[in-house]
Amino acid sequence: MEKLKILFFSCMFFVSFLVLGQQTKTITGIVKDDQGVALPGANVTVEGTTNGTVTDFDGNYQLNNVEVGSVLIFTYVGMKEQRVEVGDQDEIDVVLTISSSLLDEVVIVAYGTQTKRDLTGAVTSVSSEELEQFPATDVNQSIQGKVSGVQITQNSGSPGSAMSINIRGVASFGSNDPLYVVDGFPTQDISFLNPSDIESISVLKDASAAAIYGVRANAGVVIIKTKTGVKDRIIVSLDSFVSIQTTPQQIDMLDASTFAGFALETGTAQGVDTLSEWSNPESLTNVNWQDYAFDTGFKQVYNIGIRGGGEKSKTAFSLGMVDDDGTVVSAEYKRYNIGLNSEYDIAKGLKARASVKYAYSETYNNLSAGFYGFARVFDNVPYLGGGGITEPYDDNGNYGAFTDSNLISSSINVIGNALLTDNENATDNLLSNLALDYEIIEGLKVTGKFGYQLTSYSGSSFNPSYFRSANDQNANATYYVSQSKSRQYLGEFLVNYKKAFDAHNFDLLVGSSAQKQLYDNIATTGQGYLNNSIRDLSASESIINYSGTHGTATFASTFARLNYSYDEKYSFTATVRRDGVGNKFSSDNLYGVFPSVAGAWNIDREKFMEDSIFDLLKLRASWGETGNSQGIEAFKYLASYTSGATQDNSGYVFGGNPVSGLALASLANPDLTWESQIQTNIGLDFELLDSRFYGTLDYFNKSAKDFLLDQTIPAQNGFTTMSVNAGNVVNEGIEVMLGYRKTEGEFTWDVSANISVINNEITDLGNQDFVTYPSNFTPSFNTSWSGFTRSYVGGNVGAFYGYRAEGIFQSQSEIDALNASAPDGEYQPAYGLNPIAPGDRKFKDLNGDGEITAEDREIIGSPVPDFYGGLNVNASYKNWDFQLSFYGTYGNEVLNFIKSQNESLGAYGYNSVYTNVSQEYYNNRWTPENPSNTYARAVVEDTNRNGRISDYFVEDGSFLKLRNVKVGYNLPQGILDKISASKATVFMSGQNLFTITNYSGLDPEIGTATDIDGNGGVQTRGIDFGAYPNSATITLGFNLQF
Q1: Is the pLDDT of residue 820 over 80?
Q2: 264 to each of 30, 261, 626, how far by Cα in Å?
Q3: 86 inside domain
Q4: Residue 806: burial class (beta carbons within 10 Å; 0-12, 13-18, 19+)
Q5: Residue 777 predicted with pLDDT over 70
Q6: How do the residues of the chain divide into helix, strand and coil, expressed in percent and rounded to 5?
Q7: What does pLDDT average to over the chain?
Q8: Is the pLDDT of residue 3 over 50?
Q9: Is 958:998 a contact under the CB 8 Å cutoff?
């Protein structure tokens, strides 16, 4: 025992001697590029420690307490990393060379990673550095204009509103949203994610990259990886910004005095009743409704991130908060985020990974967007006075009213309603993943994964009772409540084998996946409350409607992928996936197989390219098939029945009692299957002249088939339509991305531009020539107003459909001549209302039958742009950073539905005679003294239907927006040392500061619109029903890192 003690203490002494004898020193030096230019801000760290520094303006550095034998790591953005072992030297100078990102960068792809050199598919990756260039609260905001082939549109400027994302054109009449895969979990919604938590985003655009997701990949795939921890150190980051938001412009409408004179003059001339108050316009107090609807908005964002780890584990934790009150009255969005990512090395070859993302959001929006909500801000009569209150509201809680007259019955105090109404929505979203990785032998790894997502939604809307006038009242308060819950479970098992020998590299993946979704929703409305303070369904006088559903959706899949490369010259990828989707299709169509193949040739690696200017020259080609089952109802292939009674709801009488029955509602079609798409892609990646010039070119052809449509069938079946798979849409296009980057002294800059040209064409619709939208909107006074978009064979999906305007009738003799040759003596019928007169809009007789009918409509425009793209600039000089981002579209059109209302004294669609008009129309309208050939005459309530949908209301929707501009200052090292920070940046940025466009409305950026009945979809793209405009924003913020 004594000998053991002596041996132990001897060892301890020896170890202590070694430790005490370990030499440390101070290392100095300079870091330059291969042109001899000093690199300020280069990172110098001691491997495996937190000891590090950055170079000063002249590229010099000093690093203390460096042990002999340790390794210094030198890094700089855009340069290759260099490692130097410390020996006897006290001064180490380093030259860094430019790194080719396409050679070295690792890209997140489906179920794994690949270097850009080995990629065979059309994949675009956006790093966290690029995502963090501009302040954002939505992940899609961060990539708009940065990825060719991806069109991202802000549907509304309302706080918390969703963005629409479209990858390489419209692929379905149903869902066109891509599949999102967040840390390996497939989902359809990422609005709950905090952009500050994102490490990288990969957009899989072609079928070879996306086909491994099979039936859910028709519209492309977006893979999102969130930030993970780091080993052997702790990084704490604090980010915050505050924004001031304003509405860029207003539509100039008539003020009270001008409107009164105009309405009195027009009504009197046409023999229509007028209001006595219009004879004394000076007595009216003007109300500019837009001044009350729009306000300066404020947005606050705070993020905290902690990333760290030890030898065997690493963890990332984050907190985030967004508070955005927007620029529209009674609108607000709040979101709270918590994130946790952990990895732990359990044993040799065995690793556990876990991630949890939770978000709680609240949305308040009391002034609904659209035709019957926000649009009233423009059409309302511009004054109040009923009850003696001349403003929308006063300091005593009173609300203004209009004159009690049917002549202005559609004008309601929309601002008062917005302040009284409570529309609240709350959403909880939890996304969690747990995975185990085990490396059985070198190169052979198995992974088991379990995921769970919970989305819980609750919404309520309280419309109080009030009386302001006979036409502006709500006798019975209503309280609407809805709740929904979705639970998704994911289980996956993967086997991955990688083997390299000589110049051959193999990467084989085989896996299976099972996912199940359970969803429930319920909604009900209570009517009649004793007072407006009660929010309780049980306290209502009656329940006027209720509904509820429960359903499931299941996916069962097996898949495989082989990646092979030879000598870094030739690459090959093949994938196949077999998908099964439960309860949507019959047993004969339950499963589908989706294959893909792709190849790439790194031409720059050939001997004949050794002395070329190219650092990278890669040719790619791919083919593959994907599917779509989104938006297809469960059990659609079966016959459905509806329950009900007789027409008067008395029921059929059996045994003296009324009994409800069942009736066939739709026919069965067991042949229904999912929509599918075949895509080919040819691409070229290149970098040249020391990788200063770089770019990507892609040609693609996507042929989508088997659309789910209601096809006409013979009437003897008892129905006129039946759901079938019919139709084909082809999207063919070219994507180009070009860039240039360079460092000159202390100035570094990188400029890139991308452009996408896509041709969208319907090539088949089964036995139909076209699909009309909305098919059910047919006002009784104007049957030709229905179907203002039409998707027809040979055209685009959702093209605008209407009449061709041919100027203005200038004389009665011109009208008489046309009437004389008309079959029924009337060239342009006004649908039983007033006959046409000089000053009315003239429409083109397209079919040559001598009169204007519904058959004289045609395609008058399209929301599909000829091309779209972005320009991005990233520059730095000494401690200053500068970023700039433009985004735009060209060749698309907008159907200005609001304009059709703003040029009518009483727009159809409202139960009113008089509504307000725009100043532009008032100044330029046709009169005998001003024979305009553009603006029609004023007609009370538009009884001559000059406002029917025609190409007059279709405008050029092309635009170029300064989406973002930012200037930042990085605090110098001296200040960082005083505050113990490794990085500190303060910045100022602007968003949507200006827009170049010919569009006359508030904002030409219109995505998927919500129509007058509250519906929306791919066939309402580009229609301005009265969406909130995007706000111009000025932001101040900071980023701190310790």
Answers
A1: yes
A2: 82, 5, 62
A3: yes
A4: middle
A5: no
A6: 15, 50, 35
A7: 87
A8: no
A9: yes
Closest CA to 672 of 699, 639, 650: 639
How many domains does the structure of the chain reveal? 1
C-alpha pair distances (Å), 13 with each of 10, 16, 17, 24: 5, 5, 6, 20
Q: Taking 60 as the threshold, does the pLDDT of residue 736 lie above it?
A: yes
What is the rounded CA–CA span in Å between residue 325 and residue 245? Answer: 9
- Answer yes or no: is pLDDT of 537 > 80: yes
Q: How far is CA 377 from the centre of its chain?
A: 26
CA distance 861 to 865: 11
Q: What is the CATH number of the domain that holds 61?
A: 2.60.40.1120
Kindly state the tokens that stand for 643: 């329950």
Q: Which tens digit of pLDDT belongs to each residue from 648-685?
A: 444 566 666 666 666 777 788 888 888 899 999 999 99
Does residue 992 have a pLDDT over 90? yes
In a domain, 94, yes or no: yes
Residue 74, in any domain of the structure: yes
Calpha distance 710→768 (Å, rounded):
9
pLDDT above 70: residue 374: yes
Using one digit for the tens of pLDDT, what is the confidence trace for 886-896?
Answer: 999 999 999 99
Residue 577 CB contacts under 8 Å (≥ 6 apart), including other chains: 211, 212, 213, 214, 557, 558, 559, 593, 594, 595
């003294």: which residue's tokens? 929
CB 1034 within 8 A of CB 990: yes
The three-state secondary structure class of 587 is helix
Range of lowest pLDDT (134-143, 757-766, 1000-1009): 1000-1009
Q: Looking at residues 743-770, what average pLDDT do you find?
A: 90
Output the six-digit token pair for 889: 């579209």
Residue 523, both tokens: 């909604």
> For residues 553 and 516, is the Cβ–Cβ distance under 8 A?
yes
Instruction: Tell me which residue of 189, 190, 238, 184 sits closest to 212, measured CA to CA.
Output: 184
Q: Each residue of 430-479: pLDDT tens digit?
A: 999 999 999 999 899 999 999 999 999 999 988 888 877 777 788 888 99
DSSP one-letter string for 653-705: EETTEEE-EEEEEE---TT---EEEEEEEEEEEEEETTTTEEEEEEEEEEEEE
Per the DSSP assignment, residues forming a β-bridge with 165 are 152
**Cα 350 to Cα 45, 299, 491, distances in angstroms:** 29, 45, 19
User: Range of 79's domain?
Assistant: 23-99
Asked whether 384 and 413 are in contact (CB, 8 A), the reply is: yes
Strands 43-46 and 52-54, by their bridges, are antiparallel
The Cα–Cα gap between 216 and 628 comes to 5
Q: Does residue 495 sit within a domain?
A: no
- Residue 522 CA: distances (Å) to CA of 122, 538, 554, 797: 42, 16, 22, 33
pLDDT of 586: 81
If pLDDT is split at 50, 70 and 90, which confidence band does 22 have?
very low
Spatial CB neighbours of 318, under 8 Å, sequence gap ≥ 6: 194, 196, 197, 227, 303, 304, 305, 306, 337, 338, 339, 340
Reading the block at residue 398, the tokens are 């009173």
pLDDT at 539: 86
Q: What is the pLDDT of residues 142-191, one digit of tens each?
A: 899 999 999 988 877 788 887 888 999 988 887 788 999 999 999 988 99
Q: Which residues contact 608 (CB under 8 A, 6 or more apart)?
A: none
**What Cα–Cα distance (Å) separates residue 603 from each residue in 574, 607, 615, 772?**
21, 9, 10, 49
